[in-house]
Amino acid sequence: MKLAPKFTIPELFDRYVKNSFPSKEKAFEILAQPGRTLYWGTDPTGPNLHLGHSTNLLLLKNLIAHGHHIILLIGDFTAQIGDPTDRDATRRPLSEKEIKENMRDYLDQVYKIIPKKFFKIEYNSKWYKKFSFSEVIKLASHVSVQQMLARDMFQERIKKERTIGLHEFLYPLVQGYDSVMLKVDGEIGGNDQTFNMLVGRDLEKELVRKDKMVIATLLLEDPTTGKKMMNKSEGQYISLRDSASDMYGKIMAMPDSAILPLWKLCTEESLPSQENISAQPKTTKEQLALIITRMYHGEKDAQRVRKQFRSIFSEGQLPTDIPEIEAKETLLQTVVAAGLVPSISEGKRLINQGAIAINDIVVKRWDQPNAPRSGDIIKIGPHTFRKIR
RNA sequence: GGGGGUGUACUCAAGCAGUCAACGAGGGCAGACUGUAAAUCUGCUGGCCGAACGGCCUACGUAGGUGCAAAUCCUACCGCCCCCA
């Protein structure tokens, strides 16, 4: 089996790439000859990859189809340092155990876009586990403090009088050294990784005399607000392993301004026209939700959740398969025990606000003897349905 | 090493002895309106009890102390920032 390229190299750059170094022309030239080795690195700082990562995955897949070799580098060591990118406070380093847990499902998410046999996997703990302190110092001598301070994110922190940990200075260095060890022809990463990738470029040039190109991909940002659409630290993102209905629903809940960026950066389908989006925002968004859900869950599930979504939200029907929960003595105890509401107090608040309904009848008072009975349908807020076992 | 400053809830940020579970903003949640969109309006946003008024408990870096009463005063410790060396 072979992967078929969906786009030519220039098309790929138009669609997914923001910047490339040393230049776009040079990148085209290099990529015109098959057999190049490129890598994408990611730190397992959480259990999920999200739609923002899918841009890189799609690009990589197409590069494979053009005959290049891809290495996926898992930063199991770098995750222990904590990338300062985009944080205005120090990131808490993760323990080895947390990292292992995060890694468990990581690859399965990658395989949904790029089948297993098409790329190599490396872990950077492989070389860092044995790194000695003198090697660290030697490595550090290749970069100056000024170079590090030039980074806007550090400038920002200096201005805000926030801490910059010395270890955070080390991060780009350590990530950059990955390039040296892998001796690659190029690196792919999000535009926010440009600084780190360029440090790697310098190191690779200096230490192994190899000219690594850097391809920085476009980030998923809301064009109206400029805000990142997938924010892992704020827990606001669409995970590649979200259930089909979650994925579909979350896409439908995105603002209209997100349609085009998502379509462009997270799919390979030809783009809808701006007029289409403006004239038919809802329909276009439905198409988008279907396309993306299909990529991760297949045609059948995507169609199923679309139908379900329509019946629940457009027609106000109940979902067909509602998860069941155990009844407790009172409604409040039931929803708290099931983990749907964090505390009794919060549950009381929700009821006072009219957010909870049993069998479509809004519960008005939390003290009423509305003990849940088997078969009752409990609705909490707009999206959560549970059935009493 | 010396001097000055600072540490408040998810974030920013007021408060500087009682009216503080703590102003305000952002975020989040819920309701109305909708296209589960955005914008807008309204309410909520520590826990537990209570129909409600309210009550109790835990919380303002940590540990002690003063006092009827402490986020607010004192002492020590810890963290962070700035200036000088």
3D structure, described in words:
By secondary structure, this protein is an alpha/beta fold. The protein folds into three domains: 9-217, HUPs (Rossmann fold, 3-Layer(aba) Sandwich); 244-314, no CATH class; 324-388, Structural Genomics Hypothetical 15.5 Kd Protein In mrcA-pckA Intergenic Region, Chain A (Roll), CATH 3.10.290.10. The chain has 16 helices and eleven strands. It has helices at residues 9-16, 24-31, 51-65, 96-111, 125-128, 133-140, 145-149, 152-159, 166-182, 194-208, 244-252, 259-266, 274-279, 281-314, 331-337, 344-352, and strands at 17-21, 37-42, 69-74, 120-123, 186-190, 213-217, 324-325, 356-358, 361-362, 377-380, 384-388. The strands form two sheets. Strands 1-6-5-2-3-4 form a six-stranded mixed β-sheet, sandwiched between helices. A five-stranded mixed β-sheet has the order 7-11-10-8-9, with no helix packed on it. The longest helix is centred in the last third of the chain and has 34 residues, at 281-314. The relative contact order is 0.10. The protein binds one RNA strand of 85 nucleotides through helix 14 and helix 16. InterPro entries: aa-tRNA-synth_I_CS, aa-tRNA-synth_Ic, Rossmann-like_a/b/a_fold, S4_RNA-bd, S4_RNA-bd_sf, Tyr-tRNA-ligase, Tyr-tRNA-ligase_bac-type. This is Tyrosine--tRNA ligase. Belongs to the class-I aminoacyl-tRNA synthetase family.
